[in-house]
């Protein structure tokens, strides 16, 4: 695994916060309550989640709520319940206050991160993917914030570039899950050689060889048994669980073993 580099990850995270600030600054009135691609969440709720996660990392406890968030249909685990505590706790805050809260907590987090030593970034901590270095958690934060930027853009009808530093950094979290998605979720059989051909703003090829277990490789040992071609914008939304492959069959091209390809595409979601 390539060693994580602090500066590019923090630069991407700080840039992401600035872009989110700009997006939230454009929201007014009832637009705060526009439904998002996430079940049960509005623009206001996404902002509350972003504020809540950074607040947790700053040591700020979630606001008290008497609502049993575990009973919500879109809450499937304890991380989801934690997120929902902040959503419920901030539900009564007006949009202008949400923006100020977002600015205040991201400014605090920026200062805290700037003051951390290399040893602190290397220290193992609890993350949504299990124990990992704190710096890895910050890359996960880039991914989470970037995905929610896409959610906000879709809800508000605001276009944006999905490539660049933020997109490339966020995509590293998706790329790290591809072998799991092909082997465990997609159940690609032994000997499978899978190539993803992504077009669009995050264009690239990803090769996965199944030899005992699935692994991403720089080059396949022989011709791909299945090639899956789709736009990176659709790929990221499938990986993020925002859309279902069944609703986008015409946008995905599969050659070779199409049955294996379809099974993989139908099981690309990996977010919690």
Structure description:
The protein is an alpha+beta fold. The chain folds into two domains: 6-173, Four Helix Bundle (Hemerythrin (Met), subunit A) (Up-down Bundle), CATH 1.20.120.450; 176-265, SCP2 sterol-binding domain (Nonspecific Lipid-transfer Protein, Chain A, 2-Layer Sandwich), CATH 3.30.1050.10. Helices cover 49% and strands 12% of the residues. Strand 4 (204-211) and strand 5 (213-217) form a beta hairpin. Helix 2 (43-57) crosses helix 3 (78-89), helix 2 (43-57) packs parallel to helix 4 and helix 6 (134-156) packs across helix 7 (164-175). The longest helix has 23 residues, at 134-156. The model has no long low-confidence stretch (mean pLDDT 93). It comes from Rhodococcus tibetensis. This is Maleylpyruvate isomerase family mycothiol-dependent enzyme.
CATH superfamily of the largest domain: dinb family like domain
Q: Give the spatial strand order of the biggest sheet.
A: 5-4-3-6-7
Shape: globular
CATH architecture of the largest domain: Up-down Bundle
Task: Give the N-to-C terminal Cα separation.
Answer: 23 Å
Structural class: alpha+beta
Radius of gyration: 19 Å
Helix and strand sequence: HHHHHEEHHHEEEEHEH
**Count of DSSP strands:** 7
Query: How much β-strand is present in the residues?
Result: 5-15%
């Amino acid at each position: 695994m390539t060693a994580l580099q602090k500066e590019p990850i923090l630069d991407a995270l700080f840039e992401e916060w600035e872009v989110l600030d700009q997006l939230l600054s454009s929201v007014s009135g009832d637009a705060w309550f526009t439904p998002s691609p996430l079940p049960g969440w509005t623009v206001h709720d996404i902002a509350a989640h972003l504020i809540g996660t950074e607040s947790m990392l700053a040591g700020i406890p979630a606001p008290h709520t008497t609502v049993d968030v575990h009973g919500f249909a879109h809450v499937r685990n304890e991380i989801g319940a934690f997120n929902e505590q902040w959503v419920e706790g901030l539900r009564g805050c007006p949009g202008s206050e949400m923006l100020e809260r977002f600015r205040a907590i991201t400014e605090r987090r920026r200062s805290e991160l700037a003051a951390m030593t290399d040893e602190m970034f290397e220290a193992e901590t609890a993350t949504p993917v299990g124990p990992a270095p704190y710096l890895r958690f910050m890359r996960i934060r880039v991914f989470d914030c970037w995905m929610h930027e896409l959610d906000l853009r879709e809800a508000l009808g605001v276009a944006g570039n999905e490539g660049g530093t933020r997109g490339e950094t966020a995509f590293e979290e998706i790329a790290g899950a591809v072998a799991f998605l092909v082997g465990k979720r997609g159940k690609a059989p032994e000997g499978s050689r899978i190539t993803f051909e992504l077009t669009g703003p995050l264009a690239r090829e990803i090769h996965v060889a199944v030899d005992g277990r699935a692994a991403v490789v720089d080059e396949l040992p022989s011709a791909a048994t299945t090639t899956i071609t789709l736009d990176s914008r659709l790929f990221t939304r499938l990986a993020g669980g925002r859309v279902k492959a069944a609703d986008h069959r015409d946008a995905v091209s599969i050659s070779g073993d199409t049955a294996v390809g379809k099974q993989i595409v139908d099981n690309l979601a990996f977010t919690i």
